[in-house]
Structures are given as C-alpha cells and as structure tokens.
Design a protein that fits this description.
397 residues; alpha+beta; five-stranded antiparallel β-sheet; three-stranded mixed β-sheet; 16 helices; elongated
Length: 397
C-alpha cells in the first residue's frame, strides 16, 4: 500500500520557503490519518470507544469463534510451522495474533498502542528466524504476516526481514488521536525504506518521515516523537548528508553521481536522486531552507583524488557526539550536514563537523566565505586521503 502523504500546508511553487513553526496541524493530521493509513473518507461514521467495529479489515473472518481456544496453527499455519522451534516466540506470537485477529481487549487508543508496542518487540525476533527463501519454503507466510500487521522486507528478491504493516485501520481511525495516527504513518513510511537494493533511490518515504516527524515534534506532551527520534534523524541525514562524486581530474570530469553518507565513494548503497530533496526544499518544513542551501552548493569530490579541503565548524571525540552535533546545527537552521573521521596532526582520531568539503581549493574558498556569514568559527583544513582514511595535513590556504 502506498504511504504517499499529502500535506495541505505545502506550497510547491513557493520560491522563498519560510520556517512556519505554528502549522495547521489539525488539517495536516487529517490528511495523515486518511492517506497514511489508507482510509476512505466516505466510510461510515466511526463507533464510539469501547464498541469494536465490524470486521473492516476482514482478518477476523477466518478465525475460530471466540468461545474456542485460539491455536496459531489453525489461523496461521505456515507461520506456526516456521516459529515452532522457538516455544517462547510461539507463545508471544499467539497472544499477539489472537488479539489482532479476534480484536480482543481493544477499546481505546491505549490498547492499540500496547498492541503495536508488542508488535515492535516481535519484529526483531521474527527477523532473526525468517530465512531468505521463506516464500519458497513457506509460501503462505507473507499473507499470514500481513493479516497481523507485519510485512516482509526484500532486496533483489531475497527476504531481508520483517517490518510493521497497516492493520486494524478502522479501530485506529475510530479511537486514535491525531498524534497516534501520525506516529503510525511515520512507522509505516519507515518500513518502506527497509526494502530495496538501493534504499536512497526512492526518497519519498524519507520525506514523509521528516514531515510527519515534525508533526510529532509539535506534540510536546505525547511520547511518540521520542519513540521515533532515531529514525527521524536517519531520514534527515539521508536528505542532507549528500555529496557529488566524479571521475577524472579538475580539467576532465565525468557527470557527477549523487551519494548519501559522509565522503563515501561507493554508489552501492548510497546512490540517490534530487527530486524529493527539491520538493522538500520548496515546502514549509522547518528544514526547507537548510536543504535548499545544501542543494545550492553541495559538497563534491573526485573518486581518485588524494586530498580534500574540509570547511570545519567544530570537532568531536566520538561518532555519537559528532552525529548529535550535526543534528543540533540542522535543528537551528544551519546547513552543516557532515561529520567525518580525521586522524589529526597530534595523533588523535577526531570527528570533524563539516559545512562542506571539496577537492577543488577555489570551490572550498568560495564556500568558506559563505559559511563565515553564519558560522564565524568555520576554518579550512587540508586533508590527505589514503586507503579510505583521512589525515590532517594543515590549514587550507
């Protein structure tokens, strides 16, 4: 199911995006709940809390009546055979599947939240046991998982794991608040990013994650942004931590390839495209100006070069602290998207917080002038590239 989300506040032809902190979240979230969860706006009116709607999802039709014991093998036979070697997993999966398929003890948003939290804990356990060729050995397992809100993730026709999938959408519409609906839209968009050989060629799910994550940020009293903050910043990194790579030298260069991730040279899995970034840059996302500035002058390097000029705004001792620093700059509206491991002149390994990097010194000097307008501590460093490592040689000229 497509998770394309339309946000009415976006203005795709706006040439000078502005940060708008007070978004019309009620309209925005109406679109999220209707489109992100695949609901029909013309469906019958929702029941009140405590009244379970008739089987809108159709999954309950093949389940044994509630007065009979629920046996996993009766309702989900392939899944039961697959999980049989792990009795503890079978017990947990049976309890979860029974509640989904029979809609037991589901009367309010909190019940759905607890159920989906249990699903989140089951997913890594199932991923661990599902073989790459599961569709051949257990041909019905994909359909059975889908019935209980879990989908297979794939790459080049090989199963790589499982992820959340929409389920009980009528109950969510009936009892879920706007923040809870946005949270589900986010996790289903994130699930879309987990399949595919080249995960960054389709940036639409990442865009949906950023826009929906911003909605969740606005609900200060709700727990949902804390639950998805790591994935939110992964999506933001995918949009901002980009650079062009070319073959050849400064005089003869190939067409550039756009890649995600530090100063990576490998088109797999980092290859990506510009379209969704251009769209987000024209939206009213809080990060639109940041992304527009990055697209205006992205980092660039040649594949076979032996040096780089880094425009460094700060240093951190660990990757974790460096990543956090980059996110703080982005949250402040400053286009500082990179952190790179550098072996410094004093023999220590540190992480440079980088505004831009180039193999061309004139390009680097021009970008430094721009950086100094908003980042007065920015400095140019000359770096040697050897065997995938970076070594500080000294300040740039």
């Amino acid at each position: 199911m497509s998770l394309l989300v339309i946000f009415p506040y976006l203005d795709p032809v706006h040439d000078d995006p502005k940060l708008i902190p007070d978004m019309n979240t009620r309209i925005w979230l109406a679109a999220v709940s209707l489109l992100g969860l695949g609901l029909n706006a013309c469906q019958p009116s929702s029941p009140s809390a405590g009244t379970v709607p008739a089987g809108h999802d159709s999954v309950a039709a093949t389940v044994a009546p509630a007065d009979r014991p629920f046996v996993l093998a009766d309702s989900l036979p392939d899944l039961a055979r697959l999980t049989a070697p792990d009795p503890a997993l079978v017990t947990r999966l049976t309890a979860y599947a029974r509640q989904v398929l029979r809609r037991e003890n589901l009367q309010q948003e909190a019940d759905l939240e607890r159920l989906f939290d249990e699903r989140a804990q089951l997913i890594p356990l199932l991923t661990r046991i599902i073989p790459e060729d599961v569709e051949g050995t257990h041909p019905k397992v994909a359909a059975e998982l889908e019935r209980i809100g879990i989908g297979l993730t794939m790459a080049e026709g090989i199963v790589t794991g499982v992820a959340p999938a929409p389920v009980l959408t009528d109950l969510t519409e009936a009892w879920g608040g706007p923040a809870f609906k946005a949270y589900l839209t986010f996790i289903y968009a994130h699930a879309q990013t987990l399949s595919g050989e080249y995960p960054y060629l389709n940036m639409e799910p990442y865009k949906d994650m950023i826009l929906t994550g911003e909605v969740l940020q606005s609900y200060k009293d709700e727990p949902y942004f804390d639950k998805i903050s790591d994935q939110f910043y992964e999506a933001l990194d995918a949009f901002t931590d980009i650079h062009f790579v070319q073959e050849g030298d400064e005089n003869t260069r190939s067409l550039p390839t756009l890649l995600v991730g530090g100063a990576s040279l490998d088109p797999y899995p980092g290859s990506t495209t510009l379209d969704e970034r251009k769209a987000l840059a024209k939206s009213r996302s809080r990060y639109s100006k940041v992304i527009a500035n990055i697209l205006r002058n992205p980092s660039a390097m040649v594949r076979d070069g032996d040096h780089l000029y880094l425009i460094v705004v700060d240093w951190r001792p660990s990757q974790r602290e460096a990543r956090k620093a980059v996110h703080q700059y982005l949250d402040r509206g400053l286009d500082v998207p990179h952190y790179l491991s550098v072996k410094r002149g004093d023999g220590t390994e540190q992480f440079a917080i980088v505004y831009r990097f180039f193999d061309s010194e004139p390009q680097a000097n021009t970008a430094l002038e721009t950086a100094l307008l908003t980042l007065p501590d920015a400095r140019l460093y000359y770096i040697s590239r050897e065997g995938g490592e970076m070594y500080e040689l000294g300040p740039g000229e």
